[in-house]
């Protein structure tokens, strides 16, 4: 336990020193600020771009438009940036030999994997929380009369999908020694989820539904209970991937 906490502090310091934490916070802060602004200004921008004789009529923007921007940015660019930032979670230290030195001095390999996953979860949580807080504040200011349903639950689902994706990422990192291999395996896992989602019966059990049904939850077109199975399976798969990562890394020759 002591090795886990010490290495976790070291990981947090490394993310601060290498500006990875700063990059994550800045990217998600930009999304948080621009989400409601884009929703508010987009109709005016499109109208200004209209040519002579062409009339563009758009409905008045609402809070739903701001949250649509939030989930679109967070699930697309946000998760892509997150995966890229964390793709070298093991390979960079293994290539430099710093991790090997720590392991030879008695650091548990289990503590390495668990602390790295915990640090990634903390950074992801701080980033998505910052993005949500900024989007919520600006949305309430720009659209004070609009109300949304199941907002916190829909954001929780997105956060949980991020945890699942990070579990796949740490598992990928134990299978390959390169950043590109880690990205490739993670990409294949996401594509597999997307392919399975083509089958309607699989949707309610598919982890990717946690990142695709968010607007449906907010607009009350999707029942909260319909995602319970996906939440349970995502948690189980995350636990399995982290456990497999520990097992593989303990047997891995460095």
Could you explain the architecture of this structure?
There is one protein chain. This protein has one domain (2-251). The model has no long low-confidence stretch (mean pLDDT 87). It is an all-alpha fold and 254 residues long. The chain is built from 10 helices and no strands. The protein has helices at residues 2-17, 20-48, 63-86, 91-96, 98-104, 109-142, 151-175, 179-196, 214-218, 228-251. α3 packs antiparallel against α6 (109-142), α3 (63-86) packs parallel to α7 (151-175) and α7 packs across α8 (179-196). The chain is globular, with a radius of gyration of 21 Å.
Keywords:
254 residues; 10 helices; globular; mainly alpha; 74% helix
Largest sheet: none
Quote the distance from N terminus to C terminus. 23 Å
- Care to count the β-strands? 0
Provide the residue-averaged pLDDT. Answer: 87
State the secondary-structure class.
mainly alpha
**What is the ordering of alpha helices and beta strands?**
HHHHHHHHHH
- What overall geometry do the principal axes of the alpha carbons give? globular
Q: Mind telling me the C-alpha Rg?
A: 21 Å
**Which regions contain 5 or more consecutive residues with pLDDT less than 50?**
none
Q: What level of helicity do the residues show?
A: over 70%
Strand fraction equals: under 5%
Quaternary organization = single chain
Number of helices, where a helix is a run of at least 4 consecutive DSSP H or I residues:
10
How many structural domains does the protein architecture include?
1
């Amino acid at each position: 336990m002591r090795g886990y906490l010490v290495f976790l502090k070291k990981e947090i310091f490394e993310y601060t020193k290498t500006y990875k934490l700063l990059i994550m916070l800045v990217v998600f802060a930009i999304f948080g600020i621009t989400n409601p602004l884009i929703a508010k200004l987009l109709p005016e921008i499109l109208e200004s771009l209209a040519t002579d004789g062409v009339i563009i009529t758009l409905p008045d923007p609402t809070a739903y438009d701001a949250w649509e921007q939030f989930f679109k940015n967070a699930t697309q660019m946000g998760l892509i940036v997150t995966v890229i930032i964390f793709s070298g979670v093991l390979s960079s230290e293994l290539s430099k030999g710093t991790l090997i030195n720590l392991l030879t001095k008695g650091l548990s390999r289990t503590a390495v994997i668990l602390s790295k996953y915990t640090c990634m979860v903390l950074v992801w949580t701080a980033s998505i929380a910052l993005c949500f807080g900024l989007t919520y504040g600006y949305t309430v200011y720009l659209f004070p009369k609009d109300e949304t349903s199941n907002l916190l639950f829909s954001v929780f689902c997105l956060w949980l999908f991020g945890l699942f994706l990070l579990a796949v990422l740490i598992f990928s990192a134990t299978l390959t020694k390169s950043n590109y291999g880690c990205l490739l395996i993670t990409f294949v896992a996401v594509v597999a989820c997307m392919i399975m989602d083509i089958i309607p019966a699989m949707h309610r059990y598919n982890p990717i539904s946690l990142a695709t049904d968010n607007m449906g939850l907010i607009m009350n077109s999707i029942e909260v209970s319909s995602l319970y199975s996906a939440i349970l399976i995502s948690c189980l798969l995350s636990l399995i991937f982290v456990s497999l990562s520990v097992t593989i890394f303990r047997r891995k020759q460095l």
